[in-house]
Design goal:
- The complex is a heterodimer of chains A (216) and B (202).
- Helices cover 77% and strands 0% of the residues of chain A.
- Chain A has 216 residues and is mostly helical.
- The longest helix of chain A has 34 residues.
- Chain A is elongated and about 120 Å long.
- By secondary structure, chain B is mostly helical.
- Chain B has two domains: 96 residues, Rna Polymerase Sigma Factor, Chain: A, CATH 1.10.1740.10; 79 residues, Orthogonal Bundle (Arc Repressor Mutant, subunit A).
- Chain B is 66% helix and 0% strand.
- Chain B starts with 7 loop residues before the first helix and ends with a helix.
- At the A-B interface, helix 2, helix 4, helix 5 and helix 6 of A face helix 2, helix 3, helix 5, helix 6 and helix 8 of B.
Amino acid sequence: MKSEQHNNQKLKNDCRRFSPQLNDYVDGRLTSDNTWQIKDHLVVCNACLQKVNNFTSVMRLLNDAPKHETAPSFMSALEARIASSPAKTSTQSRIDRLFNGILRGMLEERGFGLRFTAPFAAAAACAVFACIVLVHPLYTSTSVTSSSVSSMQSDMPDSAVLQTCINQHRSETTSDPLADTSAQLLSTSVDSLPYDASKNKNLSDDDAAVLLDEEM
Amino acid sequence: MICLSLSDTSLIERCQRNDVAAFNEIVGRYKNKIYNYVYRMVGNSEDADDLTQEVFVKMYLALDTFRNHSSLSTWLYRIAGNLCIDSHRKRSRRETGFGGTISSLDEPIGGDGNDDGPSRDIPDNTFEPAKVVARYEMDAHIQIALAKLPEKMRTVVILHDIEGLQYEEIAEVVSCPLGTVKSRLFNARTALRQHLSAYMEC
């Protein structure tokens, strides 16, 4: 009695274990050890044997199903469809013209195929874009600062130049300290001027503090 | 004719250099496999023909983007599978059910004046030998049973049991883990056995 219960329990456990592998068994994807284990199990388990028979019969039926083939006119219809494909005649042809005519020719001369053309073009476009993004603000800030400082130098008295430089320095240190080109000119101007207390009297306390900072 | 001995990879490289003969060779190699797969997915020859052409049009337009990470056949089956799903969605919006030729099996068979191919899955059996009729009958039963499966199960069982792809290739085509392929195949075969029981037991 006990051994019968033990056998039933073992059978259930084996079913649970082998059931997910029955497809692999039918498709011949198991190792020889696994295959023999399942074969042994199938001898004593009708439920799993039934499953295997069902899978095998479905698989054979589908294998034997008639193969459908394209009509004889398939190739000519396909050619016509490709010729009238909108993507090929519009966007694709423009890309072809651009890359085939210019970049591809250049690359092929150097031994590159078409597969290198697209990445090359993308990298070139990125480089141009990066140049524009990086150089443009640098160029504009430098040119504005240079022009505002240089335009006042010719006919203005030293004190006026100094005052203008201080004002510009103040405004630029608050907005963009690193772009402050007037600071250099300011320190040169201060160094070149003899110290004159009377002139400094005209400056406000804040301006004097800035001057003191610059001298230090 | 030189193209006959070339590998798929070499043919693709030639296609990327606008070699028409290489493109035709690829189409020649795969058109029937893809057509059969698409036919089993959609269930009628008109849509199968249209979608198979679309597969090769898409391949032609995307040739430059093809990398040898997967095989050409896997790539084509993936394009075909996606087109079938899109087509099924569009058709589902228009009508309920599987549609196409299958839905007209019970209608009386009449000539439509077109001699290019069969206009019905089941021909008039008074003019066909019994063996051919049996094959057409089997074909129709298989097609009806396949149509009852959910699309994901149908894809896997067609690719494995009809097209002969390995589990690993199917996992790549349908972009899912190997375990999922196995469980879908298990469920698909179980369901097909039930749907085909009347035919298989008679």
